[in-house]
Amino acid sequence: MNIVSLLTAFVPWIAFSLVVAAPLGNPLMCLTLAFIAGIILTLVTSYKQLLKGYILSIVTIVFLVVFFILIIGLKLYWLANYIAVLSMLTLMIVCWATILFRFPFTLQYSREGVEPERVKSAPFMHVNYIITAVWGIAFTLGFAVDAFLMIRPDLGLEFWDNLKWVFMVTAIVFTVWYPGYVHKQRALQEISKIKSGE
After folding, report:
1. At residue 198, does pLDDT exceed 60?
2. pTM, full prediction
3. Are 92 and 140 within 8 A, CB to CB?
4. What interhelical angle do 122-151 and 83-100 show, nearest 10?
5. Is there a smaller number of Cβ atoms within 10 Å at the N or the C end of the chain?
């Protein structure tokens, strides 16, 4: 799996979240800068993926451009109240929908530089389903936190908001660790088979 490519695809979302929350005094200016930063970073970091039709990159640019037009261009400022929930909901849908349609979004990153026959193998697909599901769980939990904060913004805002980052970091760590773990387990199984055949 091209982990760098996959994690880079999330950079625009991370930048968007950080800039929106920046203490610059003017929420509308922060939101405008967040959209601009997100759009520019998507084009800079994922232009190759956009050209190749990578699901996550396309969803990212469409989300940022559409809501930039709606909120900043058409001045539908009330939508800004739901942007955190909508972003988590969008990413959650990407994960679960691609699993549902048997094309986990991580597959596009995993098959970079991998021989075609290996891409079609059941173990290769299994790894991608697992990793995509972990991201799906992380975004589902993030969505639940944002929805909860939208309903009850008075309950320990900072703690709950930071909890989303714990879910994201967990998904990142798992994405980095899991392919190597699976590869190691298969290697041990092969060694075991060879020894048992002697």
Report:
1. no
2. 0.89
3. yes
4. 160
5. C
Q: Report which DSSP code applies to 115.
A: -
CA distance 70 to 61: 14
Dihedral angle computed from the Cα positions of residues 119, 125, 129 and 130, in that order, rounded to the nearest 10 degrees: -100
Alpha-carbon distances of 181 from 5, 135, 177, 184, rounded to whole Å: 20, 18, 6, 5
Of 33, 35, 105, residue with least CA distance to 66: 35
Tokens 């972990």: give the residue. 134
Q: What is the pLDDT of residues 30-73, one digit of tens each?
A: 999 999 999 999 999 999 999 999 999 999 999 999 999 999 99
Do residues 61 and 42 touch, judged by C-beta distance below 8 A? yes
The single-letter code of the amino acid at 28 is L
Kindly report the CA angle at 17 between 82 and 127, in degrees rounded to 5?
Answer: 100
